[in-house]
Amino acid sequence: MSVTLSAEDERARDVIRQAVLLVLSATLILTVIGIVMVFSATSVTSISQALVYDNPAARFAEAQRQLTFGIVGLILLPIAAWITPRFYERFAWPIFIAGIGLQLLVLTPLGMSSRGNNNWVNIGGFTLQPSEFLKLAAALWLAVMVGRLAKSDMSDMRKVAMPAGAGALIALGGVLAGRDMGTAIIFVLMYGVLFWLAGIPGRWVAIIAICVAVVAVLLIAMEPSRLNRVADYAENIFITPDVYDPTQSEYAMWAFGTGGIGGVGLGASREKWNYLPEAHNDFIFAVIGEELGLAGCFAIIILFVVLGFGLFRIATHHRDRWVRYFVAMIAVWLTGQALLNMMVVTGVLPVFGVPLPFISQGGSSLIACLLAVGVVLSMALRQPGVAQSLRLSKTAFKSVATVRSTK
After folding, report:
1. Is 118 in a helix, a strand, or coil?
2. What pLDDT was estimated at residue 326?
């Protein structure tokens, strides 16, 4: 049944329809690139382990797992897009509670430690990182809770604090309990954008920013590994690099320098030969720079810009306020985390460990990112006229193709 739209609704429909295509295209391309680059970055380690342990099945095992996770995520994406926004809004509380419960498992015997962070869970031989899924659950729940408040309510501390503020702190506390400061930074950025868009008073923003800064300094001072990272960062900036004892960032810089403009070729990275730590994970952008060069890095950056632009267009033109909040937080998560990862790899920021969305190795991160895009598409497609216009575009394309084939 066709619905008559106002001129404003028609413009929103057209903008969101184009944004859906941008978001979906960028997501699919980034996912494919990520799987290919994980194959490249893990090839040396996988083959060497297969030879050492005389286990041919171990060849490319890590990359094959990433491919499996990518397939699972690409199956879940359309399922998440098919579910209606009404369902997500109605079940925001159970989804959030499940996310918190899953995150708290890192404090139980099921928790696993990785690079000083106790942010993994082993359930029946399957490992996952709960904080990745908590990002999605917290963004959904907070968007619904804050979306129910009137603009005038944002000046009332009690209405903002309960339940939205308290829930945000609980989610953040769960992540910090696992000592994962990198992920906590992403949560803080998501919260900041949400409450800023909702109209929280400027004086509150200043007070919260000061409190966050003080807590961050204390957390860094309390953890020797974090202090070492800050010291390495300062050394890279103010002191001539020690070529006999290079830091992780210095290895990354050498990878970019070796790659130049056109790169040394896919699969030909030298730094991944057990020189650059986390070459397949947090520092995979350096492998891209070495193998694909400046051109490859620009391609990745452009894809994230396209993704962010599409999410921004949805967030600014959707009719529902809580949806706008949710999409804005997802945009900060995916594109903001990508920016922070690239700044860490290029030495602009100290190392604090966040993966490059869709590209770094990690099933939890990849599946959670694809699920987030699926939920965004669910909300975008329910904007009046969007889904219908996409079906009409598909029908028109088929008609043109049929006409051309008969010529």
Report:
1. strand
2. 97
